[in-house]
Amino acid sequence: MLAWLLENMATVIICAVLIAVVAAIIVSMVKNRKKGKSSCGCGCAGCSGNSSCHPEK
Fold first, then answer.
1. Nearest in space to 48 (alpha carbons), one of 40, 56, 21, 9
2. Mean pLDDT, the chain, as a whole number?
3. Confidence grade of residue 1 (pLDDT, cut at 50, 70, 90)
4. Keywords, A to Z (predicted)?
């Protein structure tokens, strides 16, 4: 097992970094959603999907 791990160390490290980046993006999106920020970057006034993002309005 240790030999296989050492032979594939680059792949393991790259996969770990990619998993960490995806997790950070998801955490950031969840935090922004809880703060009420839009994920599209534009204002909600003219958005056709406003009712799905902000049903209380």
1. 40
2. 83
3. confident
4. Membrane, Transmembrane, Transmembrane helix
Distance CA 30, CA 35 (A): 9
Report whether 26 contacts 20 (CB < 8 A). no
CA distance 45 to 57: 11
Q: Show the tokens assigned to 50.
A: 């406003």
Q: Find the mean pLDDT for residues 23-46.
A: 80
**Residues in the chain, how many?**
57
CA 41 to chain centre: 15
How many whole angstroms separate alpha carbon 36 and alpha carbon 24? 18
